[in-house]
Design goal:
With 156 residues, the chain is an all-alpha fold. Helix content is 96%, strand content 0%. It contains two helices and no strands. The protein is rod-shaped and about 190 Å long.
């Protein structure tokens, strides 16, 4: 065999191999690589879209949380104001009731003082009448009268 013929045969086999590879093997590989590249780019685009949607959702969540916090704070403030108003109202009612009770107690004490004075006057009048009766029934005598007056003093 001649070296030129071998080289020529190898060149033809190589050309057939290149043609076969370019015609039958390379297109499916290129197509698979293109599809894979397209899937990767679609995935990256979806990832970017998801990131932006996540950022928007996070902003919405923060806004809702801030709104909820503000509403909670305002509700707490309203509740505290209502509680304070209720406490103030209860204090005012208690003060009014205490004033009524004190006034009733003073009136009752005044009535009891008046009653006691009346009873005391009646007793003094009764004793004076008794003393006068005793003085008038006996003789007029300074020693006897002194004794009667001493007894009246002890009874009073």
């Amino acid at each position: 065999m001649n070296i030129n013929a071998t080289l020529f045969a190898q060149a033809i086999v190589f050309a057939v191999l290149v043609w076969f590879t370019m015609h039958f093997v390379w297109p499916p590989i290129a197509k698979a690589l293109d599809e894979r590249a397209q899937k990767i780019s679609e995935g990256l685009a979806a990832s970017d879209k998801a990131k932006t949607e996540l950022a928007v959702a996070n902003k919405r969540v923060e806004a809702e949380l801030s709104k909820s916090r503000n509403e909670s704070a305002s509700r707490l403030a309203d509740a505290e104001q209502r509680a304070q108003a209720t406490i103030d109202e209860a204090k005012a009612r208690a003060n009014d009731e205490a004033a009524k009770i004190i006034a009733a107690a003073k009136a009752d004490a005044e009535q009891q003082v008046v009653k006691a004075r009346e009873v005391l006057r009646e007793q003094v009048a009764s004793l004076a009448v008794k003393g006068a009766e005793q003085i008038l029934q006996r003789e007029v005598n300074a020693g006897v009268h002194a004794e009667l007056l001493n007894r009246l003093k002890t009874e009073l």
